[in-house]
Structure to design on (942 residues):
């Protein structure tokens, strides 16, 4: 018996040696995630009011925004919630939206009522976008709904005021808005707003789809597409609906996630909209107040096989550090998540296959998503919050996925290595990337249907270095949304990112720009291309700090 | 019409009920030749025929070949040799002998029928169908013999309407024939005529449970997005007859629809273990291989799928995508242009061609193809607004 044990031990050692040898190098130390939500006292659960009858919007519930509403230097959290159906009203506090103030000690305080953000009159809420639209230094909120959308002005005293009526932000009757993004499309220093709309829907027009006595969520083909809407910020709290004049009105889609980036490097922000079971849209800014829908030309309208998937979340960042923002959208199980490599600002190359994303993604139904350098190695990884659209199969409940970026070329699935809280199976929906404890490592906040959200703290224990940049515009919009940052490390490695709060699905992330530096402790320079055209260069900023940079 | 390559199916031939028919024909036709009076009584030929009729196929093959060495133009001996080779399962050799015989007598319906059978047995329904059609046109007396075989070929080729046209007139006469009902049901379901397909299934089931009925019912449920029901029927079909052609392939399609990729792959591989040339499995494994960046293997599957359905637009499209993925944009362009010329309603091909043109800086061509693709997809969306699951 003893001989066998000894033999077994040798076998294990040899196997381990072989695994390490075959991988070429030892496995890196990885951070993991721990859910700290239970340490806080708040009532919010994502409640889509599923009681057996399957209403179309129930699959999309639980938007998240990570933003510092009280300017105390700590990122707070806002969650959207559903409504009673078919009444389409938040008839009960369990449907209220929720604002959690970050106390800075790992706990959060529910300040929703005090802030005036319960949203009692909003109906079923979906996405949320945070941005300082009036440049007063306080982050405001835009909330998408079935029913009227709402613009909340941050009063700077911990409260918000619904200013929708005087803002001029209106939408066609009964249009269901899913997500929104703040960006300054004309570089006039004021944040404009793009709203991703899905269809025209009310409980009265909801379709029932069933087979053999079982109801299921209808295929999107039973609903009509609508135009996404662009609102131009006029200043003084007023917006003008420029959907038609800008060119957005020409294209009808079933909008989900929105990604903002300057894809062609002309200094003007472009817009990608992931459409559900329709071709995606890429609106290229023509620099004269209009956009040209160019997804075909850029190769992102359909997947490699010319097919439209159930595109859900979207994000645009540079995953291979070549200086050009790439594109990532996810979709449902059996489809292929889209990873597109920006080829010098001319077009996108479909990279799902060559990067192994196609192989890794086929088993997951993704909703919110994004590029995030979770381990601060300087390569942006791919995160997705997952869960089936329906609850009818054994594999409907799914865990989130993290595909780790290997040298900007391909990805490997490390989801199972990030801790039990990360691997929680459920019907995950919204998600935000945010550094909640200002330790330089990105944390995650994820909603799941009929559950409390997970607030996943990154263990930040792999020794890698980082820089977090908080941009404050002067001529540019105060948030600095659209500013493009280039960081060069002491060894000459170049990293790229840009300011945006819009990523994933129905969600809004930490506006501070995050750079993982790997083992490097020194930065040679940080170059900021502001939307105003100003280029600012900082020499040798210290690593491992939150650096606030004001536009000169 | 818009091509939906991933939903197309069809049963591999031959179907079990036709094995008997094939054997009968293979035996009958050489006997017919043997009974014809020989101009020059030839002991060797008689000996070969006798061996053939006694079941000594290898002996007969040797004897026919010996005879043909001296009398290479003997149509009778050449045809009988083909039949003996076919009976021995040496179909490629049989096809070669029938082709040589037909070069001497191109309008010989019996030869065409036997050649068609040989192609049919080797899973080449397009070649088989061409011979059956010609045999039937030359000799109407063969029409009844080839009708079911031809319908089976049409089903394998995804030409369901042609199969229906052939079978519909026989519906009353053959309503109790399970083989007929199976073929007819396959064609009707393939053509989207669910109610009529269900009636054919009921007629089969009225004679007891069968793997064929379960396969058809599972297919029907798959088309209706009733995945749980389809799974139960298809698993039962395989339990009743694990070698039923097409059952594993259909299960693979279902598992793909259920997003059970690994299980789907296994099902397709099981189908190919039974019939390496089965269309649906080769096509889907090619697509899965492409997604996994296994381009060499992917191309191999696609080429096998093309063997089952020569010129199939869906497979040709996938091969063009493969060219694109491997950096051969101009080759992809040529393939897509040829494909669209033949199947102008193939929306995805137009969309991909638009992207290729844009990539090649041919904006005007890209705009044109984009407009066509968009129009076709809009039409398809408008036609497909019925309530269904995702």
């Amino acid at each position: 018996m003893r001989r066998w044990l000894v033999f077994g031990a040798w076998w294990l050692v040899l196997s381990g040696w072989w695994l390490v040898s075959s991988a070429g190098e030892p496995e890196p130390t990885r951070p993991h995630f721990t859910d700290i939500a239970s340490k806080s006292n708040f009532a919010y659960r994502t409640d889509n009011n599923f009681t057996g009858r399957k209403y179309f919007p129930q699959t999309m519930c639980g938007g998240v925004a990570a933003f510092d509403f009280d300017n105390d230097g700590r990122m707070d959290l806002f969650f959207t919630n559903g409504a009673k159906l078919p009444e389409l009203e938040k008839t009960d506090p369990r449907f209220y939206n929720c604002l959690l103030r970050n106390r800075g000690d790992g706990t959060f305080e529910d300040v929703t009522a005090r802030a005036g953000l319960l949203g009692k009159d909003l109906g079923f809420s979906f996405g949320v976008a945070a941005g300082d639209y009036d440049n007063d230094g306080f982050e405001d909120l835009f909330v998408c709904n079935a029913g009227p959308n709402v613009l909340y002005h941050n009063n700077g005293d911990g409260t918000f005021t619904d200013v929708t009526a005087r803002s001029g932000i209106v939408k066609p009757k009964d249009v269901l808005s899913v997500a929104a993004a703040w960006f300054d499309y004309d570089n006039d220093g004021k944040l404009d707003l793009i709203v991703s709309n899905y269809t025209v829907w009310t409980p009265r027009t909801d379709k029932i789809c069933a087979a053999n006595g079982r109801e299921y969520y209808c295929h999107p083909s039973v609903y009509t597409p609508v135009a996404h809407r662009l609102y131009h910020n006029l200043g003084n709290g007023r917006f003008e609906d420029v959907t038609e004049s800008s060119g957005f009105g020409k294209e009808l889609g079933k909008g989900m996630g929105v990604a903002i980036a300057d894809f062609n490097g002309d200094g003007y922000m472009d817009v990608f909209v992931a459409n559900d079971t329709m071709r995606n849209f890429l609106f290229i800014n023509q620099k004269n107040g209009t956009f040209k829908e160019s997804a075909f030309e850029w190769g992102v309208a359909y997947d490699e096989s010319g097919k439209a998937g159930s595109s859900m979340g979207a994000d645009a960042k540079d995953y291979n550090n070549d200086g050009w923002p790439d594109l990532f959208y996810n979709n449902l199980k059996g489809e292929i998540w889209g990873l597109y490599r920006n080829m010098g600002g001319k077009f996108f190359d479909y990279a799902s296959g060559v990067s192994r994303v196609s192989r890794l993604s086929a088993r997951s139904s993704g909703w919110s998503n994004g590029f995030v350098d979770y381990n601060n190695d300087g390569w942006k990884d791919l995160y997705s919050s997952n869960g089936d659209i329906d609850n009818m199969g054994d594999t409907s409940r799914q865990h989130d996925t993290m595909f780790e970026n290997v040298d900007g070329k391909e990805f490997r699935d490390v989801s199972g290595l990030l801790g039990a809280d990360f691997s929680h199976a459920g019907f995950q929906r919204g998600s935000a990337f945010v550094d909640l404890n200002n330790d330089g490592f990105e944390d995650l906040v994820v909603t799941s249907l009929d559950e409390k959200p997970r607030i996943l703290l990154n263990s930040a224990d792999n020794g890698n270095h980082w820089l977090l940049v908080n941009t404050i515009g002067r001529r540019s919009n105060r948030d600095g949304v659209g500013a493009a940052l280039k960081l060069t490390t002491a060894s000459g490695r170049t990293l790229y990112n840009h300011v945006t709060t819009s990523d994933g699905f129905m969600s809004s992330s930490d506006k501070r720009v995050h750079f993982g530096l790997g083992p490097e402790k020194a930065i040679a320079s940080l170059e900021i291309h502001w939307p105003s055209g100003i280029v600012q260069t900082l020499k040798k900023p210290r690593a491992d700090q939150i650096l606030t940079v004001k536009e000169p | 019409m818009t091509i939906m390559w991933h939903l197309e199916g069809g049963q591999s031939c031959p179907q079990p009920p036709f094995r008997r028919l094939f054997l009968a024909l293979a035996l009958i036709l050489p006997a017919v030749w043997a009974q014809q009076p020989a101009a020059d009584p030839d002991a060797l030929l008689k000996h070969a025929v006798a061996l053939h009729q006694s079941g000594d196929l290898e002996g007969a093959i040797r004897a026919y070949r010996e005879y043909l060495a001296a009398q290479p133009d003997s149509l009778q001996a050449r045809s009988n040799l083909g039949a003996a080779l076919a009976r021995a399962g040496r179909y490629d050799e049989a096809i070669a002998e029938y082709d040589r015989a037909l070069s001497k007598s191109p309008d010989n319906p019996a030869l065409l029928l036997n050649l068609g059978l040989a192609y049919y047995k080797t899973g080449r329904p397009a070649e088989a169908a061409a011979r059956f059609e010609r045999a039937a046109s030359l000799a109407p007396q063969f029409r009844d013999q080839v009708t079911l075989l031809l319908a089976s070929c049409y089903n394998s080729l995804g030409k369901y309407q042609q199969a229906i046209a052939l079978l519909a007139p026989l519906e009353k006469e053959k309503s109790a024939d399970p083989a007929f009902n199976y073929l007819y049901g396959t064609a009707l379901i393939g053509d989207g005529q669910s109610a009529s397909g269900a009636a054919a299934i009921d007629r089969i089931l009225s004679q007891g449970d069968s793997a064929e009925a379960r396969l058809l019912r599972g297919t029907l449920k798959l088309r209706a997005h009733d995945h749980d029901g389809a799974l139960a029927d298809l698993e039962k079909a395989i339990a009743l007859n694990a070698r039923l052609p097409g059952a594993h392939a259909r299960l693979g399609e279902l598992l793909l629809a259920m997003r059970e990729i690994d299980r789907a792959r296994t099902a397709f591989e099981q189908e190919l273990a039974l019939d390496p040339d089965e269309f649906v499995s080769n096509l889907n494994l090619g697509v899965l291989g492409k997604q996994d960046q296994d381009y060499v293997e992917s191309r191999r599957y696609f080429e096998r799928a093309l063997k089952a359905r020569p010129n199939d637009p869906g497979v040709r499209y996938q091969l063009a995508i493969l060219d694109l993925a491997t950096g051969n944009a101009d080759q992809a362009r040529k393939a897509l242009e040829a494909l669209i010329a033949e199947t102008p309603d193939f929306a995805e091909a137009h969309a991909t061609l638009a992207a290729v043109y844009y990539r090649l800086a041919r904006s005007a061509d890209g705009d044109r193809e984009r407009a066509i693709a968009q129009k076709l997809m809009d039409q398809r969306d408008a036609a497909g607004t019925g309530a269904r699951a995702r």
Observations:
- The interface with chain A takes residues 224-226, 229, 256-259, 261, 287, 290-293, 317-318, 321, 324-325, 347-349, 351-352, 354-355, 358-359, 363, 366, 370, 373, 377, 381, 384-390 of chain B (CB under 8 Å).
- The radius of gyration of chain B is 23 Å.
